[in-house]
Write a structure and sequence with these properties.
Length: 349
């Protein structure tokens, strides 16, 4: 059995998102049914809606930064009850048995995780549809507890933009004494600055946009480096333990490499695809610098982050929009005209 849910979908790469009704499963014993309050707008939603990565199956209902209240639970659920404030991020299932899954790294599941949208449920074969919708039904193991003390509408971006930058900060053991740089001040970038600062690191921003410096300092940056200014780039040589590169499109990464220290790491979280222009190995060989990638974060780590945000009163800087304005929001996101995350008020759907 299924139930009909209202949402917003893209039907092709070049048509606007529009109202769409679709079916969600009736709750299974381990399921939590969530009435969605707010959904963040991630650049990945735009990439998927427009088939930038070449693997979108239409129609697609984007949205993987979801916060809402529990309206029903399956018979086997004891971790959540009706009325709880909860979140869902980019993952709704995985095999739960492979080594990465057993190590709380569901995002690296050897058998492929099930994404919140544009994926297929492993049990009933139904398509998954995301958070640009009224409600969602998710297995309790993939539902997160959201601290009640935070501004609820500013929490959703923690579930993707936050965890995607938190995971590398933790993996590379960032703390007091660390020097971290963030490339690009958008949704991911602004969370990276807040989180690295809260962990006690000295934080720099590389931005191509001169107008963002004041915001960067307010968010917790100690330095702002204009990436289009060669003199500023050269002055930053041998500084950073970790660079988190959030830029969504092809860009020349070579100028950033010499700014890493001996053994420093540049981790890609934005670009999905080839590094163009090609990356010279010279800065890697001469100072044993590393280049890496990182994908969102596991459920345990995401809960750790939500709890950390609750304790440190960290949320996203947001602009709340109506559902009908999503297409305009995508155009503005492409122009970096958002400070620093759009969040859809689902009551407007
Ligand atoms: P966003 O809000 O649009 O921010 C991207 C920022 O990158 C911009 O604000 C801009 O900052 C900078 N930028 C530099 N060159 C750019 C260009 N040619 N076009 C657009 N922006 C450019 O995007 P986001 O939501 O933070 O997402 C960033 C990327 O991460 C996306 O590609 C998204 O798909 C990906 N992502 C990956 C994961 C993962 O698990 N690895 C998870 C979530 C998202 P400045 O103006 O400061 O330069
Ligand atoms: Zn995302
Ligand atoms: Zn697995």
């Amino acid at each position: 059995m299924t139930q009909t849910v209202q949402g917003y979908a893209a039907h092709s790469h070049d048509t606007p998102l529009e109202p769409f009704s679709f079916e969600r499963r009736d709750p299974r014993p381990d399921d939590v049914v969530i009435d969605i309050l707010y959904t963040g707008v991630c650049h990945s939603d735009l990439h998927t809606a427009r088939n930038d990565w070449g693997f979108t199956t239409y129609p697609v209902v984007p949205g993987h930064e979801i916060v809402g209240r529990v309206t029903a639970v399956g018979s086997g659920v004891d971790k959540f009850k009706v009325g709880d404030l909860v979140g869902v991020g980019c993952l709704v299932d995985s095999c739960r048995e492979c080594e990465p899954c057993r190590n709380h790294l569901e995002q690296y599941c050897d058998n492929g995780f099930v994404a919140t949208y544009d994926s297929t449920d492993k049990h009933d074969g139904l398509r998954t549809y995301g958070g640009y919708s009224k409600s969602i039904t998710v297995s309790d193991a993939f539902v997160l507890k959201v601290p009640e003390n935070l501004d609820t509408k500013a929490v959703p971006p923690i579930l993707c933009a936050g965890i995607t930058t938190w995971s590398p900060l933790r993996r590379w053991k960032v703390g007091k004494g660390s020097k971290v740089a963030v490339v690009g001040l958008g949704g991911l970038g602004h969370m990276a600055i807040k989180l690295a600062h809260a962990l006690g690191a000295e934080v720099s921003l590389f931005s191509r946009s001169p107008g963002k410096a004041d915001d960067a300092y307010r968010l917790g940056a100690d330095k702002v480096i204009l990436s289009t200014d060669n003199a500023q780039m050269q002055a930053a040589a041998n500084q950073f333990d970790l660079i988190i590169d959030t830029v969504p499109y092809e860009h020349d990464v070579n100028p950033y490499m010499p700014t890493l220290k001996l053994d420093g790491t540049l981790v890609f979280v934005g670009l999905v695809g080839d590094i163009t222009p090609a990356l010279s190995t010279i800065p890697m060989l001469f100072k044993r610098r590393n280049v890496a990638g990182s994908l969102i974060g596991g459920l345990k780590e995401t809960q750790e982050l939500l709890d950390f945000c609750g304790e440190h009163n960290i949320v996203s800087d947001i602009e709340v929009i109506d559902m009908k304005d999503i297409n305009e929001a995508y155009e503005r996101m492409l122009k970096s005209d958002v400070k620093y995350r759009f969040v859809i008020d689902m009551a407007t759907l």
